Amino acid sequence: MKNKHKFMLSVMALACLNSLNANAEIFSFDTRSSLNSDTLVLFQSADSTTYGIDFLPQSTQDQLNLATADNSFSGKQGEILEILVPSEIDAKRVLLVGIGDAKTLTPGDINTIGGNVAAKLDTVPQATVRVLTQGLTAAPLFASEFAHGIELRSYRYTQYKSNDNAEKNYQIAVDDLSGNQKHHKNLQAVEAGVFLARDLTNAPAGIMYPESFANEARKLKSLGVKVTVLEAKDIERLHLGALAAVGKGSERPPKLVVAHWPGSKEAPIALVGKGITFDSGGYNIKATGTSIARMKSDMAGAATVLGTVKAMAIQKTPVNLVAIMPMAENMVSGHAMIPGDVIKTAQGLTVEVLNTDAEGRLVLADGLWYARENYKPAVIVDVATLTGSKVGALGSVYAGLFTDSETLVQQLTYAGQQVGEKVWRLPLDQAYADELKSTIADLKNTGKEGSAGASSAAMFLKRFAGEQPWAHLDIAGNALTATDTAVVPTGATGYGVRLLSTWLTQPKMKN
Q: How confident is the model at residue 84 (pLDDT cuts 50, 70, 90)?
């Protein structure tokens, strides 16, 4: 058996309030004794090629071939066959994992394969898992993307947990050690951003409010991020009237948090994230159903853009990136904004508030203005859990994308396809803007009842977006999952960090 530079890839992660129940180490894979493990993972493509099988004794190979035939295992992506193995190798089981056509695998596909393996082994008590990826030359970074999927799926929010499942040790054999190590290091940076976003969104609203969110942002200073926090007096001085109005019902005042990664001298890219740390609905209170219990997640847009800044800072990405996060609690009190109020935004436009539960677009209006006025960005992308209408249109599989820039449509759609955080373009049309006309103010904060609420909300934001290219991502329905998915356990998803990180690091076309 020839030595083809067989090594193990490290699976490590950076975390905040979370823990991972998976890690691994790097070591040489030169001898058959290195097959010793509790579980051995091999891959089979749709053309029946089984990668790594040549390292197994002939009797074990025969058993695998018989098992695949008996179970009609075809190597299709998503298939996993568990086989108990004989004593010729010191492993209790072999997982044979289908990958389909290796030549067409996207990074997101490979992440999903890794996440599914992690989920399969989550309840298995044995701790050591060895994975053979040799020969997958059609997907040279398969090992690092597979490890990324394992780690994304192995995240746990443990702040209030007394214990969790035993840790798994994944040891992944690779052909190209240096290439996979470099790529995985970048993926670990993205994981750190995803896990920060998940932590912030999973945290109860009683401990994650505007000030505590600002404190989490301040921690990024150690990475070279410039963090500025505008307090209530600053918000008043700068006439951020929409943000002030939304936050005035709470005893905990609003903030405007700015996190700037100055990775280049080019004009900045601005990300604006909705940061409603709890959304009661205000006087249009969420009085029916259980949706109000999930409203701690209404700051997921802010969590996503802060997580993206962290991912870029850890990688030291050469990009000038600024995240603007208007933070507030939308509460009911004697001081709260009430239906019928007219408020004045920082841009100078007045808004008739017909629904206090349409508050996200109000804080984003001031956030968009602040980004334009203070940073003169080349591009703005805002991210928000904005409308139930978007959930009705697209569910949780796609985020809603709104933009007039064909270039941003192409770039963001491609980035989402690569990592499995898909976006779907929804219409921006003057008809939806016409619904926002008010008889007593410059515009209303809601469109017609029963109309396309996601589009009218996007047209509201467009009034504040400026002339540079702008895109709006409505991630309502994407920010939380009620069930485990391939790369996300139940709870906050961190949706958008991987998409935006891919977009920011891919070659750009001119806007």
A: confident
Mean pLDDT across the chain: 91
Judge whether 316 and 505 are in contact, CB under 8 Å: no
Cβ-contact 140, 178 below 8 angstroms: no
Q: From CA 436, how far away is CA 289, in angstroms rounded?
A: 28
Question: What single string gives the DSSP state of each residue in 356-407?
Answer: TT--HHHHHHHHHHHHHHHH--SEEEEEE---HHHHHHHTTTEEEEEES-HH
Taking residue 396's Cβ as centre, other Cβ atoms within 10 Å add up to 17
Task: Point out the residues that are catalytic.
Answer: 286, 361
pLDDT of residue 206: 95
Other beta carbons less than 10 A from residue 135's beta carbon:
18
Asked whether 38 and 91 are in contact (CB, 8 A), the reply is yes
Strand partners, 168: 22
Distances in Å between the alpha carbon of 207 and those of 202, 211, 249, 491? 11, 9, 18, 17
Residue 24 has pLDDT above 50, yes or no: no
Distance CA(397)–CA(415), nearest Å, equals 15
Percent of the chain with pLDDT over 70: 90
Provide the residue count of the chain: 511
Characterize 153-184 residue by residue with b for buried, 16 or more Cβ atoms within 10 angstroms of its Cβ, and e for exposed: bbbbbbeeeeeeeeebbbbbbbbbbeebbebb
Question: How many whole angstroms separate alpha carbon 129 and alpha carbon 477?
Answer: 34
- Separation CA 465–CA 458 (nearest Å): 10
Average pLDDT of span 262-266: 97
Which parts of 215-360 are beta strand (E)?
226-230, 255-262, 269-273, 275-279, 320-330, 342-344, 350-352
Average of per-residue pLDDT across 277-288: 92
| Cut 0.85: pTM above it | yes
Who contacts 245 (Cβ-Cβ below 8 Å, separation ≥6)?
Answer: 337, 341, 343, 353, 362
